[in-house]
Design goal:
alpha+beta, 30 helices, 969 residues, Isoleucyl-tRNA Synthetase, Domain 1, four-stranded parallel β-sheet, Isoleucyl-tRNA Synthetase, domain 2, 37 strands, RNA-binding, five-stranded mixed β-sheet, Rossmann fold, globular
Length: 969
Amino acid sequence: MSEAHYNHRFIEHKWQQTWRESKLYQVDNSSDKPGYYVLDMFPYPSGAGLHVGHPLGYIASDIVSRYKRQNGFNVLHPMGYDAFGLPAEQYAIQTGKHPADTTNENIDRYRKQMDRIGFSFDWSREVRTCDPSYYKWTQWIFKQLFNHWYNATSNKAEHIDNLVAIFENEGNVNVRHEGGEVQNFIAEEWLSYSPSEKEDILQQYRLAFIQETTVNWCEELGTVLANEEVKDGRSERGGYPVIKKAMKQWFLRITAYAQRLLDGLDTIDWSDSIKEIQRNWIGRSQGASVHFPIAKDPDQNSLEIFTTRPDTIFGASFMVVAPEHEWIDRLITDEQREKASAYVEWAKNRSERERMSDVKNVTGAFTGSYCIHPFTGKQIPIWTADYVLGGYGTGAVMAVPAHDSRDHAFAKQFGLDIVQVISNDEANVQEASFDTKEGTCINSDFLNGLSVQQAIHAIIKRIEEKKIGKAQINYKLRDAGFGRQRYWGEPIPVVYKNGLPTLIKDNELPLTLPQVESYKPTGTGESPLAAIDEWVKLEDGVRETDTMPGWAGSSWYFLRYMDPQNDEVLASQDAINYWGQVDFYLGGAEHATGHLLYSRFWNKFLHDIGVLPFDEPFKKLVNQGMIQGESHFIKVYRTLDKSQNIRRVIHSDENKFEPGVFHSFGGEELIIPLEASQHYDLVRVANDDVSNLKSKRLYKYDYDLLSTKELKIYFWTNEISHIEWLVDENGEQYIDLNWFSEKMSKSKHNVVNPDDICEEYGADTLRLYEMFLGPLEDAKPWSISGIDGVYRFLKKTWKLFIDKEGTYVPVSGDADKKSLKTLHATIKKVTEDIGRISLNTCVSTFMIAVNEFTEQKCTNKEVLEQFLILLSPFAPHIAEELWEKGGQTNSIALASWPEFDEKHLVEDSKKYPISINGKTRMMLELSLSLSKDEVEQEVLNNGDVQKWLDGQTPKKVIVVPGRIVNLVV
RNA sequence: GCGGGUGUGGUGAAAUUGGUAGACACGCUAGACUUAGGAUCUAGUGCUUAACCGCGUGAAGGUUCGAGUCCUUUCACCCGCACCA
């Protein structure tokens, strides 16, 4: 009964089970075949389950995997879960359920959803970052980071013991490192230091270290967040306010790798936009650091600044230090104390958010102190202003208002001198700064007459001779905060003995999470682990109670898939050598500065310490675009009491709120005073309801909108006073249902579950349809309309093989010339298109092929089976079923990709488009064996052409053999 | 402000080195077959027009026999960074 018609439910269930039982997609770490590693960014298993946007990338990578397998590669195509993280813990706090339990439930759901789509994952290699057998190695990597320092001479990480040996022999004078500032000392001094003093010094070298810094503290989440987890002064998850707070934190010294992270980008095949984002984030700038002696005390103290334009040093008319500058109190003189200190206090207390949203107002104060210009000897005033950032460079700048727009604005505001030092005919530097690095130096003593580039070299040389500074490179990249005051993360394998951090032994790994009573943050900034005395307190010390951030486990998971059960090492050398780098990595572009940068950092470190032979983790990266949801809304009016403040729940950006403008719910509660007595709002309608609607008009007699009993409309009902009804041709009242695209999420009630599509149309249809939507990398709205076309295509494909009685039709024999042409055109196009990840055009090509085969009434088994192989990476279930029906006993997944043969495409004639003055006027079929001149003659002698020429003689005839003929008159 | 990207029918989109713009689908319009169904099949469908002509790839110029594609200017939208000295 399942035979005659295409029955996706039966077929897909059957093959998913068969593949699972035969372990079809399991791969070995050794093979005669070359290895090929196809990786998806593994998901965080949230409670909402997968929506149709998630599988987009998995489908594309599955197609590539299956294609590579059929092309003779041994393909590693694993999947796992990024299972530590905040949402599970937030849920635990609300419900008291252990995050491990909810995480496992979510994982089970994800797995079921993925299984229905027919992926060729090798599930025997699954990893979960929250599994102790996995995070044992995350902890192990942390230990290595703690035990290594970055040697700037050898330009790689080296063991800390080597460093200590150097200190014991010769002190640190010859050691160049990437890390904190350290005073010089000699061997005898080192040997005389106490253990605690020694550790303080080593902390400046270690790649994992503790530091007191201002961190992004989120009160609501009770934790510290990384820079990229903060958006516009709020937490990315939840939209809660984030403030600056001083705390002791674990950090990883990613800045040591800044240059290599930059250089490595040139060696990998990633999109330009992601590379650019990373370059931007690393933010390299080349310049010089210069010391400006302080006038009060020129011999003792000097203010160090960083500039990329040392050539403009003669134009420096004042200095600016950040309000957070460590010397700010010393710089402020008694006369200026009142004003300047008040400014510093005000600036320090401004939130990041205020500061960012208020970049146009120029603020600052004079400290009262002066510097001595190292070249002119003139005294120049030192100001403080918050346009200079404490965290960048030295937190101080030399201000050159003539050639820096920010300095210019400041000089204008406070009436400071503007001295032009780069010539420029066009503009007046008193009016606007001239920032461009072009021109000739003037008013600059020995630099006069030099170009900007020449002057930069000359002045740096002079600065270095005078020993007042040096050429320097700065990076925006900051060291990565590595501690989270949360329960649901990897425990940091550190015990404090006499206050000094020490690593636990390898044989004590993994250090597992203990059971806790409450998952709530303590609120003091300590993790819930701190409350468990029996876990924290040891005979010889106390445990670190911070856990690792979410990105720890995901920074190396691609390595564990290579050898997931290994208990001796994170992955065996054999496995690592066989698989090597990830050949093809697919995932969202939103991880550009997080996961993708941290993974590269860890990979480089592991390379330095000899674990990995390669320096970059992901050879080729493709970013799939987001599938947006379709959100529906209706317009409702509200009448409000003017005096009343309306409590409303809106999304994170309150600036966007205006009466009558669409806004979404969830997030923070805000009170917005309203001027208008009446206005309308756009109100969501859940998609479940929309799918049942027959029209986009909601009639009053159908729905009791005010009570929302009929429609699940999400809004604050008691605030709605009336709906302005429209009236249709028949006098019936209705309201329009509108829609637009936005991110798919549970809170927006616009999620489409792939299970529903699989149930109704099948996984093969879902797979084809998601690819058919458009280019993989583009963002696109999800729309169900159009899926029928793909479903029809599969039914047509089925009918090529199975007739109405359920009989298998194709027979072996010599194939029709036309069918061979169709087949080989398809082989050519699909092979090329998979190669450039143009999967949408592959689907079109399949449709064209099936249309042609149907027209040709093609029943040739060899031709149709070759076609099935081409289709199988996209629609594996139907391909496998029809393959089996043809008597094949091995899975189609193991078949060889068809070979393209040019000879089937060779034509002896071509329908030439004949254009006159570039306009196509007619078609003319001509033999391809004709020479250019013969074609020209044929065309000119043709009666229809003569008609078009209307007696005129063409001035010129262009013949492109096999393509086009153009007549110029 | 800086960086990256995108603009093509009613819709999603094709168009390989400049060579028939709109493939393939959705939708729509007719029609066929039907125990009238959201099934299947046939024909049509960029705009304009009765038809021919004409006009058409965000806009304006340019190169070329020929431009969606190359060059210049410009507009709109999306994404990322944002006082980084």
